[in-house]
Design brief:
Residues 7-20 have low confidence and may be disordered. With 198 residues, the chain is mainly alpha-helical. The longest helix has 27 residues, at 168-194. Helix content is 62%, strand content 5%.
């Protein structure tokens, strides 16, 4: 009996570690290469797009900017005197770099109690959920990667106040997210037509 219990416990521990790769796919500049290397990403983005209406290329460009597709990405540490760690800059974690509080709100609202930020399906669903609410509350188009990213980064309240307008660096980053989203969209159309990856 104890062997069976031990085996089940080991299986549960191993199962809880799954869902994330840690390392990013090899070629982050090519949507076809990303989805070819990690076909489960395509399934995750498609599922989120069906549920929330946020296109896969917008989700992918956001994940690229937030974590470079590293499943367990974290913000850097803050240091005192350059040598004493004082904790991380924020609680942002995982593919989506969702903050603790926002992630808890998502789990409640979306009914995804077991969701993990290191799981691509959960992170894609989170981005879809968040951006769909931004569309509803702020009138941002589902496909507007630039403004969706600004609302994602600043929060909906910060976006509605126009906080981003006093941050030239953030406006530049949002333009890069938009350019990447359009590049991913074109690449995905090409690989869909040529190889049927997505």
């Amino acid at each position: 009996m104890s062997r069976i219990f031990g085996a089940l416990l080991a299986l549960l521990v191993l199962a809880s570690c799954g869902g994330g790769y840690g390392e990013a796919p090899r070629n982050l500049d090519n949507a076809c290469a990303i989805l070819g290397e990690r076909p489960e990403y395509a399934r995750a983005f498609q599922a989120s797009a069906r549920r929330w209406g946020i296109p896969a290329h917008v989700q992918m460009a956001t994940i690229y900017q937030e974590s470079k597709f590293i499943s367990d990405a974290r913000t850097p540490y803050r240091w005192t005197l350059g040598v004493i760690p004082r904790g991380r800059i924020s609680s942002a974690y995982g593919y989506s770099q969702a903050l603790d509080g926002t992630w808890e709100e998502y789990k409640r609202d979306a009914g995804r109690w077991g969701a993990r930020r290191t799981d691509i399906f959960d992170s894609a669903d989170f981005i879809g959920w968040y951006m769909a609410q931004s569309s509803e509350r702020l009138g941002i188009s589902h496909a507007d990667a630039r403004n969706q990213y600004l609302a994602y980064h600043e929060g909906r309240t910060g976006f509605s106040r126009g906080n981003h307008n006093s941050k030239p660096w953030l406006l530049r980053v949002a333009a890069e997210v938009d350019a990447r989203a359009q590049r991913y969209r074109a690449q995905m159309s090409a690989c869909r037509a040529g190889r049927g990856l997505v």
